[in-house]
């Protein structure tokens, strides 16, 4: 894809070479240098167009969304459970991440069939960023916080990093032991088809 974009940009530059040359000469630039800057500008515009209005950029915990600045702690994920509405912020998400890491370091019997994945999951979670998007999606990198099927609790679901015909989702069923402290009560896996 990179080469096709480059070829397209070269064609655009060649098509406008007389204009670029004249403009560059008027500004006192060498045509090749000026063309390089025009190509860089076009690439910037193309890449900027790939970023939609719901994109979120993080810098020092600050979120920029549609020109609006917010601190990550201000964003909240809401879940409607049978017991009522649960609101979690990024600090709660960090507590969940720590709870899952503690579980993976000393797993119970429900995890034993997944021991081959333990080191990989630990490595992922130990360096993972906890983020809540403007749409309320709570993520710990590839792991997404969701409510379970019967809306009685929360689960942390590990989604695969790439799509294949058959994929496996891993679920950590969560329980808040006390405020700010979460633990995994069981671990499961579900096979899903990407074709559905």
Helix-strand layout with pairing:
Elements: H1 2-15, H2 17-27, H3 31-50, E1 57-59, E2 62-65, E3 68-71, E4 77-81, E5 84-88, H4 90-105, H5 118-127, E6 130-132, E7 138-140, E8 143-147, E9 154-158, E10 166-178, E11 181-193
Antiparallel strand pairs: 1-2, 2-3, 4-5, 6-7, 7-8, 8-9, 9-10, 10-11
Helix pairs in contact: 4-5
Describe the model.
- This protein is α+β, with helices and mostly antiparallel strands and 196 residues long.
- It has two domains: 2-50; 73-193, no CATH class.
- It has helices spanning 2-15, 17-27, 31-50, 90-105, 118-127, and strands at residues 57-59, 62-65, 68-71, 77-81, 84-88, 130-132, 138-140, 143-147, 154-158, 166-178, 181-193.
- The chain has a six-stranded antiparallel sheet with strand order 6-7-8-9-10-11, with helices on one face. A three-stranded antiparallel sheet has the order 1-2-3, with no helix packed on it. The chain has a two-stranded antiparallel ribbon with strand order 4-5.
- The chain is globular.
